[in-house]
Amino acid sequence: MMKLGFRGKVFLGIIVIVLINSLFITLPVRRIVQDALSLEYQNRGLSIAMNLASRSQEPILSTDLLLLKDLIDNSIRSSGDIAYAFILDETDRILSHSFKDSFPTALKTANRASLQSPTRIQLLNTGKEYIYDFAALVEIGGQKLGCVRIGLSKTQIDRTIHDLLMTILLLSGCSVAVAGAIGAGFANQVTYRIKCLHKASEEVLTGNLDIQTSFRKTRGCWSITQCRNTECPAFGNQLTRCWYIEGTKCAHCKEGGYANKIIGCRECDVYRRLSGDEIQELAESFDAMSKSLRIHIRKLRESRKAIEISEEKYRRIFDGSMDMVFVVDSDGRFLDMNQAGMDLMGYDAKSDFMNQMSFSQLFSNPEDYEAVKNDLNTKYFVKDREILIRTRLGDDRVSLLSCTCQVDSIGGAIKGCEGIIKDITERRNMEQQLLQADKLASLGQLSAGVAHEINNPLGLILGYTQLLLREEPPGTQPYEDLKTIEKNTRNCKTIVEALLNFARKTETKKVTVDINAAIGQIVTVLQRQFEVAGIHLTTSLATNIPLIKGDTEKLKQVFMNLIMNARQSIEGKGDIHVFTEYDAVTNQVVINVEDTGSGIPEHIRHKIFDPFFTTKPTGQGTGLGLSVSYGIVKEHGGNISVQSELEKGSVFSVTIPVLLSEASSEIIPVKKPALTF
What we know:
- This protein is of the alpha+beta class.
- The chain has helices spanning about 5-55, 55-60, 65-80, 155-205, 220-225, 260-265, 270-275, 280-320, 340-345, 350-355, 365-380, 425-470, 475-505, 515-530, 550-570, 625-635, and strands at about 80-90, 95, 120-125, 130-140, 145-155, 325-330, 335, 380-390, 395-405, 415-425, 510-515, 535-540, 550, 575-585, 590-595, 640-645, 650-655.
- It is rod-shaped, with a radius of gyration of 64 Å.
């Protein structure tokens, strides 16, 4: 079925209303006219019947049938709607009638009048039409002489009612036509304006907010009030009514937007004279809405641009920070994390980190987390708190935590917090190395002084002991005692010489050094010896290792000490693996010595480079090997570090920088962007 538009609905509605109104008028009018005509017919029929009855008294008494016939004929001629008339005597014998053919006998008893009811009306159906039958008693002195019967056809009433209905239908048709024409005109005006609004709304949906639906105004508030204030935004404005404009200068206008102004404006004479009907008001308010939306959208775009600039600045600072920057909610779930934090924690995908980690899981020590949580709950911030965080690989990193809570301004509840974690592991290692260097320097000075003071007495003791040994025959008790003194004196001199070597800065002869070749020479010497003891010594030497400047013998001493320490940490069978690589980013050569020994306990790991510190039994080591190696590496501008795990082994890493001016031609300097300000 085709859907009706607004115009069709208005047109159809008006026609239906007119038709229903005509129906409601026709039915009662028909009823009223029918009742009125029936009553008039009954009154007229009774009048004719009673008149004929009064005139029929003498002819009935004299049995003058001819006169009765004349009376009946005159009555019929006097009214064209008399269907029949007849007169009966007191015995219901027909005295005269108007029927041309035979008299219908059934008609005599169809309606009877009596002394109790001298007149009677009866509606009879002849099969062709309805007839009102009127019976009037003819009497004299209370004695019945006969009865007069008159029949009036109801057809005239029906015809009159039919004509009336036709007239009403004709008038209703004319009313429908007039109402339809008026409704169509009204619907056209309304639908045209509605279509304009619909088209305007579609334009607004496409983003065109400059659409104008209402007509230009030839009159405005300035013309009615004779205003000449050109600074008023409503002055001369032919597109927008003054009650839709903010900041009007009229003394009667309220300040503010449309919601504040319209209440007062409805009482204004300008509003009463210029405001239109509902559709016109809708069109004007639609135009005002479009203008307001245009202004708001412009402001939103400006605000959005400012927000985007601010967001870009924040995101640049957030993502560009070299420290871990994070945001967590009140339940400790991470909401955001920068790339530096992802790299520090060892995650590639941010979603993995968000799903797997919580704020409490960052901390290696539960005590650190409880202390931080307590400060956040009481002070709402933490500043430069040193903690240990655990990465995805299980490494513990020394870090500084600074964190600030986001507090709800209404309820005072903590909504979350944001903070920065700075990895200071390298700085702590450097501080340890500096402390180690200071300690070594102090011990070196002390060792040099002690060695010089006791070296000469030890030489005298050894010399006099050897002189005494010449005079004592071997095998005697004095000879054995003197040999014991000689042996221990030589041990003391060995320690003193080691102290002197440790303290004395011997001249370093830097030449071109092939790290791989130096390591290969040491491995060649030790490999066979290690294999006999069940130690598998292997190497993985990178081919892109550049030549460096250094003291070959001292570097060999470092590698020898590291490999021998690895050997001594292995009980029984095990593996030692030496591998090298070149780090082009830092421009350093990296030498790693990895073993499968017993590992170094964490509580002594920071002491292993201290002079005279050793875990070996008495007589098997002086505790100076790693200290000397540390000094040699530092002398070459490098660094030495260790990573160890109990029962799994240790990895000693030596890094030696490559000077570009002294490196081989294969090394390509890394170009970095420079500041231009």
